[in-house]
Amino acid sequence: MCEGVRAAGDAAAAADVDVITSSGRRRIPAHSTVLASASPVLESILQRRLKKERDAAAGGGKVRRAVVRIRGVTDDAAAAFVRLLYAGSSGDEEEIDEKSAAQMLVLAHAYRVPWLKRRCEGAIGSRLTAESVVDTMQLAALCDAPQLHLRCTRLLAKEFKAVEKTEAWRFLQENDPWLELDILQRLHDADLRRRKWRRKRAEQGVYVELSEAMDCLSHICTEGCTEVGPVGRAPAAAPCPAYATACRGLQLLIRHFSRCHRTSCPRCQRMWQLLRLHAALCDLPDGHCNTPLCMQFRRKEEEKAAAKAKAKAGDDDDKWGLLVKKVRVARAMSSLGKRRQMSCSQC
Ligand SMILES: [Zn+2]
Ligand SMILES: [Zn+2]
Ligand SMILES: [Zn+2]
């Protein structure tokens, strides 16, 4: 016990700085090297203070410890801040309690301690509620804490109905309409972005489906599958892996196409589109593709391309070209994914 007390006494004696809290009630002995290495702001304060003390001592004055004041926060928060600076970013992760987390974030921002700022953002963000989100968002903006700001925006978007009922939101509406407008604008933008992303995802799903249909069409027209096979050959008896998802539906469509005699049939139109799309994507040399109408469509497209070179192409052709391009990309992506899966399964 005596050893411990003596060690603590030695450590305090080696301290060359006193950190004083805003109330002035607490004086925490500290080492200037530790504080200066933890924070560039403290480093610059300490350089000035230590020089002043040295000059005073050289002039025959009383030798005193330099003093650093941490203002604007409670004594406990200031003490915890010094403790955390001593522990450092790689030290034991001291729990940042709910009460002092906001003050700690302010200190980490003011004294430029980035690792502590990130920890405070994490601690505050993990306890975010509809009640606290408005105040926290303002704090995040003041302390330049982008991660925390993003979490607040997400929670606002998710639970806006609950936030609207809180006292903090009502206070904001009455006292800071500009911030209210800014938040509503952000929510609107986030909603637009979400809708756009959903639309893009749905579109991408269609291109991937078309790409799978192209693979199935080639597979049916070269090997055949259960019920439909290439011209003059029996189809393979065993169903392919894509039988349930795409192949069976395409087989039904092909069978319908071969029997239907209606002049205007949506299912037949769909089959025409698939055959045309196949021809646009097919890179087999002339006479090597078994898919019906592939050559005819390719000739037709070549004629169109030649005509397009002479005259400006119409809007429809541009759209078709875009569709072909997007399905080609989706196809390349899915074959890349399959290759990766195969190489992973072989590992
Ligand atoms: Zn199949
Ligand atoms: Zn039909
Ligand atoms: Zn072909």
From TrEMBL:
Q: Determine if Amino-acid biosynthesis is one of this entry's keywords.
A: no
Source taxon at top rank: Eukaryota
Q: Cross-referenced CDD domains, in alphabetical order? A: BACK
Q: Name one GO cellular component term.
A: nucleus
GO terms of molecular function: calmodulin binding; zinc ion binding
Q: In which pathway does it act?
A: Protein modification; protein ubiquitination
Q: Which InterPro entries match?
A: BT1/2/3/4/5, BTB/POZ_dom, SKP1/BTB/POZ_sf, TAZ_dom_sf, Znf_TAZ
Q: Where is the BTB domain?
A: 15-94
> What are the protein's UniProt keywords?
Metal-binding, Ubl conjugation pathway, Zinc, Zinc-finger
Give yes or no: UniProt keyword Ion transport: no
Question: What biological process terms from GO does the record include?
Answer: regulation of DNA-templated transcription; response to hormone; response to hydrogen peroxide; response to salicylic acid
A Pfam family this protein belongs to? zf-TAZ
Q: What PANTHER family does this protein map onto?
A: BTB/POZ AND TAZ DOMAIN-CONTAINING PROTEIN 3-RELATED, BTB_POZ AND TAZ DOMAIN-CONTAINING PROTEIN 2
This protein's name: BTB domain-containing protein
Source taxonomy lineage? Eukaryota, Viridiplantae, Streptophyta, Embryophyta, Tracheophyta
